[in-house]
Amino acid sequence: MEGGSNDATSVKVSARDLDVFYGSTQALHGISLDARANRVTALIGPSGCGKSTFLRSINRMNDLIPGMRRQGRILLDGADIHDPGVDVVDLRRRVGMVFQRSNPFPKSIYENVSYGPRIHGVSDRGTLDEIVRTTLEQAALWDEVKDRLGASALSLSGGQQQRLCIARALAVEPEVLLMDEPASALDPLATARIEELIHELKERYTILIVTHNMQQAARVSDTTAYFYLGRLVEVGPTAQIFTNPAKQETEDYITGRFG
Amino acid sequence: MSSSPAGRRTATTAVASAASESRRRAARRAERLFGAVVRTAAFAAILAIVLIFVFVGREALPLLRQGQAPGHGEEIVSWASLAGPTTYPDRPPRYVWQPVSAVPKYNLLPLVVGTLKTTLVAILFAGPLAVLAAILTSEFAPRWVSQVVKPTIELLAGIPSVVLGFFALMVLATWLQGLLGVRYRLNALTAGIGLGLAVIPIIYTVAEDALAAVPRSYREASYALGASRWETAVRIVVPAALPGIFAGVALGFGRAVGETMIVLMASGNAALATWPLTDSVRTLSATIAAELGEVVFGGPHYRVLFLLGVLLFVFTFAVNLAGELTVRRLRERLGGRA
Questions:
Q1: I need a labelling partner for B69 at 20 to 30 A (CA). Which of A61, B20, B258, B328 fits?
Q2: Would you state the pLDDT for residue A5?
Q3: Inter-chain contact A119–B337, Cβ cutoff 8 Å?
Q4: Residues B51 and B114 in one domain
Q5: What is the pLDDT of residues A28-68, one digit of tens each?
Q6: B231 chain-A contacts, CB cut-off 8 A
Q7: Is residue B89 part of a domain?
Q8: Is residue B47 part of a domain?
Q9: Nearest residue on chain B to A59, judged by CA atoms?
Q10: How far apart are CA A82 and CA A86, in angstroms?
Q11: Is residue B22 domain-shared with residue B135, that is, in the same domain?
């Protein structure tokens, strides 16, 4: 497996000494981590280790949590996402997110996908039709739903709903895709489809994925970062992390000795 | 330990099974008893409602049998006089409710019009206010504002309707007269707004619950796509809560139709079948309240008042049914997940 730190692609997302506090508890301690363009970066670690917090810092979803405080920087294409001049709306358009539990809106399939483009000002029906078709194709859902775009999104199966959520995120043409355990609520077959999809999507997007599933991280990612108790323990090419980790802690977790 | 392990094991198993057997039996008995109590209570409630309807309907029934009320042969209340206008030799025909008169006139139209007018005003006044307040407190206002506004509105529900009626009669009527320069202080508008005060907490509470029940994940998904709070509220949260909001409005409508004291005090009680909202009106409920105590038992007037009761019953039932069906349709359209 190629990839890793001496890889040719540019750094897309970069955290520098990131601390995050919820009230008086510190959730992240000085995280410095790079995610490269067109690569999949997996964040692994036991529950409560801060990997989701880190993920949600990248599109500033944590801003919505009362009592959240942050120090340090996150750079997107070298520009600090916390600069006063940065529009959160624009940031979230560039950095899409897929959640752990599929959460389609209680609307039609078509409306779900077109919601993002609409709020960003696309109103032409033809353009919207085109966006809906191409993003559903990218999310490998088009063939299954093309005849019932007007049906409720909640009538889809769990795996289809999650792919719909991916299509919805892709519809605003993001550059980075954050996935918070996107397959944890799915059966093995649906999980396989999502993983396949991640593999295809990385040609166009920078992907960061949080997962509890070691095999999944090993299968889909190029770089793996191991978090423990709010600290980044180790980061490196996935092959190396899984076969020959530098730290004993990492090895213990990966081999299932704890966590 | 001299006793054999095997023997001890059987003994303990026997004790355990005996104990659990009796416990199981007791649990089953308690469960059956509880089920019976719940069933009886539910059945009694339904029975009470059915009996009320049967009683009211039975008192009005002689009217529907088209003819004379039993025991009082002197008067006939025909369908034509209930529904159609009274004709005069020297004046144009009019719809008149004038039950105490040399020739009693029992036309229902003025009362139905009065009820519809006050109810309409109440819903148009209270609906938007209550729904907007619910959206404000659940989506936009800082927590401390919600913590003040919510209990305050809910407190409105605890105010006796006679107090609201008093307020409408004394204060609201004067304000509105000053504001609009209307001729009569007590009219459909005054009564409707007073009624609205009683309806606001009902719609607000139900709508607020519906909005609060919208999963956080919908909001997160919307924010993650770059939507603002406003866009998220208007395009995602409110549509998702629409069945609940609608249920609140239907419930408020039912209350407005049946509410009596406020309209009795603030509507002017003149049975006029006219269009302007600033005319006095007399509602079905207020008519029953004001007249039932003074009618001849079993007489035509008495029967007609019970017919008004049936009408109210049918009215609220129809509203609730329509509301329920609409809510169900909306839910199905949203995907069937409650």
A1: B258
A2: 45
A3: no
A4: no
A5: 999 999 999 999 999 999 888 889 999 999 999 988 888 89
A6: 119
A7: no
A8: yes
A9: B224
A10: 7
A11: no
Q: Are residues B39 and B161 in the same domain?
A: no
Report how far apart the first and last C-alpha atoms of chain A are (Å, whole number).
26
pLDDT, tens digit (0-9, with 9 covering 90-100), for A89-103: 899 999 999 998 889
Give the structural domain span for B176: 107-333
What would the two tokens of residue B196 be? 């609205």
Token look-up 């709020």 returns A119
Residue of chain A minimizing CA distance to B334: A106
**Which pLDDT score is estimated for A92?**
93
Distance CA B39, CA B45 (A): 10
Asked whether the predicted pLDDT for residue A4 surpasses 70, the reply is: no
Confidence label for B327 from pLDDT (cuts 50, 70 and 90)? confident
Q: How far is it, in rounded angstroms, from Cα A227 to Cα B1? A: 54
Contact B335 A119 (CB under 8 A): no
All residues of chain A having their beta carbon less than 8 Å from the beta carbon of residue B236 are 105, 115
How distant is the Cα of A3 from the closest Cα of chain B, in angstroms? 29
Task: For residue B180, give how far its alpha carbon lies from the nearest alpha carbon of chain A (Å).
Answer: 42
- For A170, the closest chain B residue by CA position comes to B225
Nearest chain B residue to A98 by CA: give it.
Answer: B221
Helix axes B109-135, B284-291, angle to 10 degrees: 120
Task: Give how many domains chain B has, as a whole number.
Answer: 2
Question: Which residues in A lie closer than 8 A to residue B218 (C-beta atoms)?
Answer: 103, 105-106
Stated pTM of the model: 0.80
CATH number at residue B308: 1.10.3720.10
**Shared domain check, B118 and B32:** no
Q: What is the pLDDT of residue A149?
A: 93
Residue B133 within a domain: yes
Residue B76: inside a domain: no
Q: Of A58, A62, A168, A64, nearest to B221 (Cα)?
A: A168
Same domain, B49 and B186: no
